[in-house]
Write a structure and sequence with these properties.
The protein has 323 residues and is of the alpha/beta class. It folds into two domains: 182 residues, Rossmann fold (3-Layer(aba) Sandwich); 118 residues, TPP-binding domain (Rossmann fold, 3-Layer(aba) Sandwich), CATH 3.40.50.1220. The chain contains eight helices and 16 strands. The strands form four sheets. It has a seven-stranded parallel β-sheet with strand order 7-10-6-1-4-5-11, with helices on both faces. Strands 13-12-14-15-16 form a five-stranded parallel β-sheet. It is globular. The termini are far apart.
């Protein structure tokens, strides 16, 4: 089986989730006794492309087309599917990111391939079966899916595998597939990016707060704590609905799903809808003055106390530690 991996880029730069997808695909290719090819779409400098070799790609197909400057779901899916057929790949790997969740099913349909989205481990192939562990029920459980199709699409959950350097020699090839007009029936007219220093979907540490902060004027301590930790900031749905914080920070079932290494929840009760978006976090720390808050049932560490007393003490302790 040969393996192809699609790597997203933002303004010509790759994200950590992309390097993680390459690392996962390389491990899969090695297990299958084959090399790894990557496909990228966009105007990306050669030095940036060569970074993919550090994580296991031995060949890169780069598509640089002005029509594809901005992400267009259907057009990108067509290009990636064509690359799979060009390379004769049996397995396609991509990140289960916001765009990846839209691409994966479209590509699977085009290739008549089986799909696993939210994969969290390498496939098990004992007994001739192809079994993959994935998240289920909004991250509250795991399922093992068997793919029996000739071609397979795997969407890897961010922060599920890790980034591993192997330093392959890499060759870069220009790939110019036909771009069809009917793939542009719906296009992106404008992209407005959040201005946070740390991107929320890719953040390894997230500091989040809810209605327990009582108002938007109290968010300064959350931002200060996040800055000290090198973290992104997030919030619960009631907070974004009240316009205390931008909707781009809303994490939960109807917001952004994240899987950081550390999630700190301040003044959030822990409703099931919120937990659905953060349950893949490696470590969860909860700060809440209500000892019966549902969030404590899923927390790895909990502090029962007033956020307005606890958070400033954490900030001071971090300042002393850094000093």
């Amino acid at each position: 089986m040969s393996v192809l991996v699609y790597i997203e880029q933002v303004e010509g730069k790759f994200k950590k989730s992309g390097f993680e997808a390459v690392s996962y695909a390389k491990a899969l290719a090695t297990a299958q006794g084959t090399n790894l090819t990557a496909i990228t779409i966009g105007n990306i400098e050669e030095n940036e492309l060569k970074e993919l070799g550090k994580y296991g790609a031995s060949k890169i197909l780069n598509v640089n087309n002005e029509q594809l400057k901005n992400f267009v779901n259907q057009a990108y899916a067509s290009v990636i599917a064509e690359a799979v057929n060009k390379e004769g790949a049996d397995i396609l790997v991509l990140s289960n990111s916001f765009s990846g969740r839209g691409l994966a099913p479209r590509i699977a349909v085009k290739l008549k391939a089986g799909l696993v989205d939210g994969a969290v481990a390498l496939p098990e192939t004992d007994g001739g079966k192809f079994l993959i562990r994935k998240t289920a029920f909004s991250g509250k459980a795991f399922a093992v899916t068997e793919l029996t199709s000739a071609k397979k699409v795997i969407a890897l959950m961010p922060n599920a595998f890790g980034v591993k350097e192997v330093n392959e020699d890499v060759t870069i090839e220009t790939f110019a597939p036909e771009v069809k007009a009917n793939d542009f029936s719906a296009i992106v007219k404008e992209i407005v990016r959040a201005t946070d220093k740390v991107s929320l979907p890719d953040a390894e540490i997230v500091v989040s707060a809810g209605r327990g902060l009582k108002g938007p004027e109290n968010w300064g301590m959350i931002e200060e704590l996040a800055e000290l930790l090198g973290a992104a900031t997030a919030c619960s749905k009631p907070v974004s609905d009240a316009d205390w914080r931008p909707h781009s920070e809303h994490v939960g079932q109807t917001g952004i799903s994240i899987s950081p290494n550390l999630y700190i929840a301040v003044g959030i009760s822990g409703a099931i809808q919120h937990l659905a978006g953060i349950s893949s976090s490696k470590v969860i720390v909860v700060i809440n003055k209500d000892p019966e808050a549902p969030f404590f049932k899923v927390a790895d560490y909990g502090i029962v106390g007033d956020a307005f007393e606890v958070v400033p003490q954490l900030i001071e302790a971090l300042k002393v530690h850094k000093g």
